């Protein structure tokens, strides 16, 4: 499990630890770890000696880390150039160390467009130490020309120090560039006032913004340097499951010799309508490969379902009359008519402790009825909204854009308000349960999953996981992880180039990724 802590918790832990260490020791630990990662990256394509490294150093501790690491690389023979973005306030110790090691130093004002392009064009590795966890808002105007040049040059490896400068360390938010801010003709909205890194070397613990889009896209691969903070950190704010975590759960629900289909769990699917039978088929496809022993379907697409999935137990009545299940999935393709409302109400009238997943049209109906239909009544329910549905559930003051921009806050608020677990879909899928527990971030997935019906497969898969047992949060997190991997597998196969996929391809890839996770579960793998 990877973890992340809020900036406030990191600051507190740093203070506690610093009080017990000689002055500057913590920064030396950070710089040593950072330099070691840079040296390793450089060695992947040769030696450290003679390689051109450019250090972008701001005014705070982040710039200090970068300068000390630059000094260490210069000490190993690299040609290191620092550009001070706030020369009067550069870290004195770091600057002296870099100079003493033979590094060259320029001030931002001396590095105009052409000079910056020449310098960054020669760089093989750029250390982004403009601003770290002390950053507020997007990068300021004075550093943006340099950041734009960096974006444009033949790509050197960009290594962000602690966090990519300009990314909000707590939320992953970035400030978009306006058209006026892009004199190089870059279209508005494409750029952000933030550095885009290939690797982020973060200190002590992960920061939430490194794992949640758009921050995650700016962070690249995240490497953790241990600086001894752990004993002082307290509970994590974010958990990022890895293969080993998911493998543990999948092994736990694997069939045993004495298992029969009922003991493994039966998942009920109330989805699809005369108008949208496809959603029923895709939800059943996800459920059938999702880890339950059997799938029951209740609804208007019974005939189509049994033709496509002959193993399904089907009926065309209401869920309550369909027979025993261990979890219901309600919503995909249900449409919004009176009959759909009866189906949702029928599920809401089922035994309180029975796990129930509400997706798509069922979410619209839950939003109309309000949080009280779930809160305190259905402790094992799971909601699976995308940003638009989440905004509708949250109501006044929320829009899809605000949910996208404040994903962590939105998923927490939803879970708290409805008193149930919530899986918020999107380019970063997040899960939360009511209370102050950590938010789970799903690290798998691909943009190719943004295809019609992909959410129906996820709903079925998550329903099957609910039926197999455990908490709604655990079931949802496992489903999101497998779904993301299956999307990648379907889109990329064994290679690096993606291609368009259908939701059916995602369902078809599930057994393969299931095997992959369980068999490689001892290592991290993501
Ligand atoms: N406190 C310590 O001993 C340690 C600090 N560490 C490093 O120190 C960093 C935190 O240092 P600081 O608290 O000094 O803060 P930062 O260095 O992250 O940033 C603060 C400085 O950046 C400027 N700034 C803020 N927002 C900006 C923006 N949008 N655009 C441009 N400049 C902006 C501020 O004027 C301020 O001078 C961590 O991220 C980490 O890299 C590590 O070395 C570990 C130990
Ligand atoms: K940085």
UniProtKB/TrEMBL annotation:
<feature type="binding site">
    <location>
        <position position="162"/>
    </location>
    <ligand>
        <name>(6S)-NADPHX</name>
    </ligand>
</feature>
<keyword id="KW-0521">NADP</keyword>
<keyword id="KW-0067">ATP-binding</keyword>
<keyword id="KW-0479">Metal-binding</keyword>
<dbReference type="GO" id="GO:0005524">
    <property type="term" value="F:ATP binding"/>
</dbReference>
<feature type="binding site">
    <location>
        <position position="455"/>
    </location>
    <ligand>
        <name>AMP</name>
    </ligand>
</feature>
<comment type="similarity">
    <text>Belongs to the NnrE/AIBP family.</text>
</comment>
<dbReference type="InterPro" id="IPR004443">
    <property type="entry name" value="YjeF_N_dom"/>
</dbReference>
<protein>
    <recommendedName>
        <fullName>Bifunctional NAD(P)H-hydrate repair enzyme</fullName>
        <ecNumber>4.2.1.136</ecNumber>
        <ecNumber>5.1.99.6</ecNumber>
    </recommendedName>
</protein>
<feature type="binding site">
    <location>
        <begin position="132"/>
        <end position="138"/>
    </location>
    <ligand>
        <name>(6S)-NADPHX</name>
    </ligand>
</feature>
<comment type="function">
    <text>Catalyzes the epimerization of the S- and R-forms of NAD(P)HX, a damaged form of NAD(P)H that is a result of enzymatic or heat-dependent hydration. This is a prerequisite for the S-specific NAD(P)H-hydrate dehydratase to allow the repair of both epimers of NAD(P)HX.</text>
</comment>
<feature type="binding site">
    <location>
        <position position="128"/>
    </location>
    <ligand>
        <name>K(+)</name>
    </ligand>
</feature>
<feature type="binding site">
    <location>
        <position position="456"/>
    </location>
    <ligand>
        <name>(6S)-NADPHX</name>
    </ligand>
</feature>
<dbReference type="InterPro" id="IPR030677">
    <property type="entry name" value="Nnr"/>
</dbReference>
<feature type="binding site">
    <location>
        <position position="333"/>
    </location>
    <ligand>
        <name>(6S)-NADPHX</name>
    </ligand>
</feature>
<keyword id="KW-0547">Nucleotide-binding</keyword>
<comment type="similarity">
    <text>In the C-terminal section; belongs to the NnrD/CARKD family.</text>
</comment>
<keyword id="KW-0413">Isomerase</keyword>
<feature type="domain" description="YjeF C-terminal">
    <location>
        <begin position="244"/>
        <end position="517"/>
    </location>
</feature>
<feature type="binding site">
    <location>
        <position position="279"/>
    </location>
    <ligand>
        <name>(6S)-NADPHX</name>
    </ligand>
</feature>
<dbReference type="InterPro" id="IPR036652">
    <property type="entry name" value="YjeF_N_dom_sf"/>
</dbReference>
<feature type="binding site">
    <location>
        <position position="386"/>
    </location>
    <ligand>
        <name>(6S)-NADPHX</name>
    </ligand>
</feature>
<dbReference type="GO" id="GO:0110051">
    <property type="term" value="P:metabolite repair"/>
</dbReference>
<feature type="binding site">
    <location>
        <begin position="425"/>
        <end position="429"/>
    </location>
    <ligand>
        <name>AMP</name>
    </ligand>
</feature>
<dbReference type="GO" id="GO:0052855">
    <property type="term" value="F:ADP-dependent NAD(P)H-hydrate dehydratase activity"/>
</dbReference>
<dbReference type="Pfam" id="PF03853">
    <property type="entry name" value="YjeF_N"/>
</dbReference>
<feature type="binding site">
    <location>
        <position position="165"/>
    </location>
    <ligand>
        <name>K(+)</name>
    </ligand>
</feature>
<comment type="function">
    <text>Catalyzes the dehydration of the S-form of NAD(P)HX at the expense of ADP, which is converted to AMP. Together with NAD(P)HX epimerase, which catalyzes the epimerization of the S- and R-forms, the enzyme allows the repair of both epimers of NAD(P)HX, a damaged form of NAD(P)H that is a result of enzymatic or heat-dependent hydration.</text>
</comment>
<keyword id="KW-0520">NAD</keyword>
<dbReference type="GO" id="GO:0046496">
    <property type="term" value="P:nicotinamide nucleotide metabolic process"/>
</dbReference>
<keyword id="KW-0456">Lyase</keyword>
<dbReference type="InterPro" id="IPR029056">
    <property type="entry name" value="Ribokinase-like"/>
</dbReference>
<dbReference type="GO" id="GO:0052856">
    <property type="term" value="F:NAD(P)HX epimerase activity"/>
</dbReference>
<keyword id="KW-0630">Potassium</keyword>
<feature type="binding site">
    <location>
        <position position="62"/>
    </location>
    <ligand>
        <name>K(+)</name>
    </ligand>
</feature>
<comment type="subunit">
    <text>Homotetramer.</text>
</comment>
<dbReference type="InterPro" id="IPR000631">
    <property type="entry name" value="CARKD"/>
</dbReference>
<feature type="domain" description="YjeF N-terminal">
    <location>
        <begin position="10"/>
        <end position="235"/>
    </location>
</feature>
<dbReference type="GO" id="GO:0046872">
    <property type="term" value="F:metal ion binding"/>
</dbReference>
<feature type="binding site">
    <location>
        <begin position="61"/>
        <end position="65"/>
    </location>
    <ligand>
        <name>(6S)-NADPHX</name>
    </ligand>
</feature>
<dbReference type="Pfam" id="PF01256">
    <property type="entry name" value="Carb_kinase"/>
</dbReference>
<keyword id="KW-0511">Multifunctional enzyme</keyword>
């Amino acid at each position: 499990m990877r973890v992340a802590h809020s900036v406030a918790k990191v600051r507190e832990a740093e203070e506690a630890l610093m009080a017990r260490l000689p002055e500057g020791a913590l920064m030396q630990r950070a710089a040593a770890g950072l330099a070691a990662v840079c040296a390793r990256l450089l060695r992947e394509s040769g030696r450290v000696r003679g390689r051109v490294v450019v250090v972008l150093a701001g005014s705070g501790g982040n710039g200090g880390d970068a300068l000390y690491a630059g000094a260490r690389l210069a000490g190993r023979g690299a040609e290191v150039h620092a550009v001070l973005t706030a020369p009067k306030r550069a870290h004195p110790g770091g600057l002296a160390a870099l100079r003493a090691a033979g590094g060259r130093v320029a001030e931002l004002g001396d590095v105009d467009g052409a000079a910056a392009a020449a310098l960054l064009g020669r760089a093989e590795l750029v250390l982004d130490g403009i601003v770290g966890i002390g950053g507020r808002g997007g990068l300021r105007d004075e550093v943006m020309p340099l950041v734009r040049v960096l974006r444009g040059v033949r790509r050197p490896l960009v290594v962000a120090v602690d966090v990519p400068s300009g990314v909000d360390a707590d939320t992953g938010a970035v400030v978009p560039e306006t058209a006026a801010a892009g004199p190089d003709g870059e279209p508005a909205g494409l750029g952000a006032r933030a550095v885009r890194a290939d690797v982020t070397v973060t200190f002590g613990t992960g920061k939430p913004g490194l794992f949640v889009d758009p921050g995650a896209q700016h962070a690249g691969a995240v490497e953790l340097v241990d600086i001894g903070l752990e004993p002082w950190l307290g509970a994590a704010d974010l958990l990022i499951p890895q293969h080993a975590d998911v493998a543990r759960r999948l092994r736990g629900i694997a069939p045993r010799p004495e298992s029969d289909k009922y003991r493994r769990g039966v998942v009920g699917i109330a989805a699809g309508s005369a108008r949208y039978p496809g959603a029923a088929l895709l939800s059943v496809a996800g459920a059938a490969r999702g880890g339950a022993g059997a799938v029951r379907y209740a609804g208007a697409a019974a005939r189509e379902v049994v033709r496509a999935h002959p193993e399904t137990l089907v009926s065309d009545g209401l869920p309550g009359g369909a027979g025993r299940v261990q979890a219901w999935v309600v919503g995909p393709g249900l449409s919004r008519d009176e009959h759909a409302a009866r189906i949702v109400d029928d599920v809401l009238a089922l035994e309180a402790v029975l796990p129930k997943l509400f997706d798509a049209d069922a979410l619209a109906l839950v939003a109309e009825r309000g949080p009280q239909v779930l809160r305190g009544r259905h402790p094992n329910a799971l909601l699976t909204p995308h940003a638009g549905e989440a905004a509708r559930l949250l109501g006044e003051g929320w829009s899809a854009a605000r949910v996208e921009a404040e994903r962590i806050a939105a998923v927490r608020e939803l879970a708290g308000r409805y008193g149930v677990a919530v899986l918020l879909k999107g380019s970063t899928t997040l899960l939360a349960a009511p209370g102050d527990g950590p938010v789970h971030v799903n690290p798998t997935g691909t943009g190719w999953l943004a295809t019609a019906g992909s959410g129906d497969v996820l709903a079925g898969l998550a329903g099957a996981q609910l039926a197999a047992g455990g908490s709604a949060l655990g079931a949802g997190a496992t489903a999101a992880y497998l779904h993301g991997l299956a999307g990648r597998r379907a889109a990329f196969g064994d290679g690096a180039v993606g291609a368009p996929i259908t939701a059916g391809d995602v369902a078809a890839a599930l057994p393969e990724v299931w095997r992959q996770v369980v068999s490689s579960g001892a290592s991290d793998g993501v």
